[in-house]
Design brief:
150 residues, alpha+beta, 3-stranded mixed beta sheet
Length: 150
Amino acid sequence: MKLDQRYIILVIFVSITLFGIVVRYMGDAKSALWQFWGVVDTASAVALSILAFMGYREYIKSEDEIKIYFNVEGKVEDTGLSLLRKDCTRGEIVGLLEMMQTHTKERFHFDSQGLSILLDEVQKIQKAQKDIFVIPLTQKEFEQFTISKG
């Protein structure tokens, strides 16, 4: 949600709350306004429960385990590593790659297209469009990394 949408939702919530307080203390229990407020109150409760359910589903999705693979010129290699979807960021992936390097004194190298694909994969994982993280590599790039099988 954008910041301006949050502001609008907050204003609507505060307005409805204030309207309810005014109706409660200004009218009697049999007035049409009070009855209308009862309908609005029920509709708001249902809408909020639906929004809470949607938020819960997003939270559960963020807890998914994302397995990480290398695609070495068409051959898929399991790294044996995984992250939670919520932790699958560019920084985490780069950190994992650095820990898997054969030569730790050097920085690993990707071509610029590989880096672009890597960032695209991160976005797809974060948007829940994919459930596995595949890093495409050439054989030469793959030789920079050590995969421990175990």
